[in-house]
Specification:
Blueprint lengths: L8 E5 L19 H13 L4 E4 L11 H15 L5 E4 L5 H13 L4 E4 L9 H14 L5 E4 L2 H4 L5 H10 L3 E5 L6 H8 L4 E3 L2 H10 L6 E5 L4 H11 L3 H15 L3 H4 L2 H18 L17 H22 L4
Helix pairs in contact: 1-2, 4-6, 6-7, 8-9, 8-10, 9-10, 10-13, 12-13
């Protein structure tokens, strides 16, 4: 079973590509499986160290169950175990979470990307117990905690990580962006959990906790910039790592005013990321599934420019990571 120490390099987050008409409320069979297979294969080819699917930008909450199952099956059949795959199984309640975990586990996923059931905000005790119950029910299936306070209305604060590491032994990683408590939570979890930042925070995380910063995640804009950054950090090439981090900051700059506002970002996360990935030229994301298919011109403009910049970085760093 994969552990925290096994995660190295750049993980890529997949979109759930949509066919034309997917924005209709009565649409069915919305997943573009040909594009799903193409993206999955290209991520393996281009050096991604793993795939994360069906989180927020993967439209987990708005992908119907039949589409969900076809999409997961396509990814796992395409990847064929060549790199780790963490499939999102977050749902409104625990019973549906368990059903989804059984499904993705049966198809050969490496582990699950798992947030907290989303209807009623949970207390600290509820959150810890939830992950402990999942670990007990599926003792041989790794959990990557999806630590998104904006989505799940739970702060995933410093007081959460020690207890969850102790009571949920299959938790081995977390999609995590809280640099203010990074050092504290690394110490609290005693190296058992790999805290995975977005590519834009990877360099900063490495300055805070260089021994444990072995991986990061990047949307499907092409993993090459993130692969190059993680290689420079692993090689101890500080000058090159800083230069790549500066390039990534430049690519993210058009979205700063969106991501910097918790309220704005929370209502536009899916829209921003799907537009960004499509504008990068790396994948065809297709329409946004309802009800999140409303996008302001300002957000569309910023996400489009950021995506184009990531496309330039993909070309710049392709030769470096071959």
């Amino acid at each position: 079973m994969i552990t925290a120490k096994d995660l190295k390099g750049a993980l890529a987050i997949m979109p759930t590509p949509a066919k034309e008409g997917a924005e209709r409320l009565d649409a069915t069979n919305t997943v573009d499986l040909d594009e799903t297979a193409r993206i999955s294969e290209n991520l393996v080819r281009d050096g991604a160290a793993g795939i994360m699917a069906l989180g927020t930008m993967g439209e987990c909450a708005t992908t119907a169950q039949d589409d969900y199952e076809k999409y997961v099956d396509c990814i796992l059949k395409t990847v064929r175990g060549r790199i780790p795959t963490f499939i999102g199984t977050t749902a409104l309640g625990g019973h549906e979470v368990a059903r989804r975990i059984k499904f993705v586990k049966g198809l050969g996923a490496t582990g699950t990307l798992l947030g907290i059931p989303m209807w009623q905000p949970v207390t600290l005790d509820m959150a810890v117990k939830f992950y402990a119950d999942v670990a007990e029910t599926f003792p041989d299936f790794p959990i990557m905690i999806y630590a998104n306070p904006r989505a799940f209305r739970f702060d995933f604060g410093a007081n959460f990580w020690g207890p969850v590491a102790a009571k949920a032994p299959t938790v081995m990683s977390a999609k995590f962006a809280n640099r203010a408590i990074l050092k504290q939570v690394v110490e609290a979890t005693k190296g058992r959990i790999n805290f995975i930042p977005p590519v834009g925070l990877a360099y900063e995380f490495a300055q805070i906790s260089p021994e444990t910063q072995t991986t990061c995640w990047i949307p499907s804009v092409g993993p090459q910039p993130a692969v190059a950054l993680m290689k420079a950090l692993a090689d101890g090439n500080a000058k090159q790592a800083k230069a790549i981090a500066d390039d990534i900051a430049w690519a993210n700059e058009p979205d700063h005013h969106i991501v910097g506002s918790a309220e704005i970002f929370a209502s536009n996360n899916i829209q921003l990321e799907k537009i960004l990935m499509a504008a990068s030229g790396y994948c065809k994301t297709g329409p946004i599934r309802p009800p999140y298919d409303v996008v302001s011109d300002d957000i569309r403009k910023g996400a489009t420019e950021a995506g184009k910049r990531y496309g330039q970085l993909r070309e710049k760093y392709s030769a470096l990571v071959r």
